[in-house]
Amino acid sequence: MTEQVNQQRDEPGGRFDAILDAAEQVFADSGYDGTALREIAGKAGVAQGLIHYHFDNKAGLFERVVARRSGQINEARAENLEKLRAEGTLRLEDIVEALFRPTIEAGIELAEDGGSFSRILVSLANSTDPMAQSLTETYYDPIAQNYIAALQQAEPALSRADAVWAYMFAIGVGMTMMAKTGRPKRLSDGLCDDGDADLMLARIVPFICGGVRALT
Amino acid sequence: MTEQVNQQRDEPGGRFDAILDAAEQVFADSGYDGTALREIAGKAGVAQGLIHYHFDNKAGLFERVVARRSGQINEARAENLEKLRAEGTLRLEDIVEALFRPTIEAGIELAEDGGSFSRILVSLANSTDPMAQSLTETYYDPIAQNYIAALQQAEPALSRADAVWAYMFAIGVGMTMMAKTGRPKRLSDGLCDDGDADLMLARIVPFICGGVRALT
DNA sequence: GTCTATAGTTCGATAGAC
DNA sequence: GTCTATCGAACTATAGAC
Lengths: 216, 216
Prior knowledge:
By secondary structure, chain A is mostly helical. Helices cover 74% and strands 0% of the residues of chain A.
């Protein structure tokens, strides 16, 4: 068997991944409806038809973009939680840190842009669109249940309902970091930078933990 | 001067307001880019051309939709805060309540839908689009500064930067109420209903207050 | 696997009658 | 102030050559 005309789908650096990378950026910047496949093809340096060959249609491409990073993020989230459980007592602070750290690292993975994927996550979390709902259900509800259970373990006084609320509120707080609108800087005359993920985590973790404990 | 052929722009119940009402629903359901002016015209029972006569273009219509409710919401927010200041000591709990109550009441104003406008607010707050940024700056940054100052008054140990973070995080938590995705119900087997604004406020207020105090 | 070319649809906006 | 009719642009998706 001789070598193929071009690279396979699973070899990084090929056309397939170039499309995914470009799509991630454009979907993040312009939203699903605001995105034109032409622009993705242009940024990826491929013909528009190739997108349909690999991903069928726009929805298929979007789902692949979400699936790729969601896999990385949620595997890391699960591993982080496993490690904490293995170490013994679950501390609330560690749980929150374990929840958000992987989204940060997935966000800055693409060097040139400012962390595209996290912005896709924000729109996914807030959308009532059936496709968005379905993707959330598939990729994020299972790990959510995992963390909700962990919250209750760390704070036994928390009811089941309040653990769910706590998780939802935590995600809401985290979205102010992932949206990267620049609004904190504007409101604070440059004092607060929502582009600095480590700085933000140092404020987000105590805020959420204080909030959760106030629910008990 | 005899009576006009039809109602004026400032008379409720006229074509002008019918367009705004329909636009609010469709923009909330489908997002800005996902919205077709045809659908708005259809729902409002008017010709598509009338939208351009009254609002010039799609962007103009959207801005008017935002402006209308934002005026109501932020006047109420300002009044609430004034009242608290007049009463004497500022309690953190009252400030948070004063911040979110008006968005709830604006949300349920239109009877038939489930509070459309709050969903527009969510997408506005998370968008990096220039038009969204500009609208946020115009309508929501001034009142934000007002509440940030109030947070510092209520909790003097809070630094200016942390007061800005606290405000941002509070908005993030509030968005889990305004997005109305139904996810809390799904994650809790029906225990948590994000459609019940009063129930949510009873959990959001203590959560945020606990979070803010943890920042000091 | 990748490209070019284009079909077919939908959309925002305009022109002009009433 | 409101409607009908339509233009022109943009988009997704497909067909077919290589």
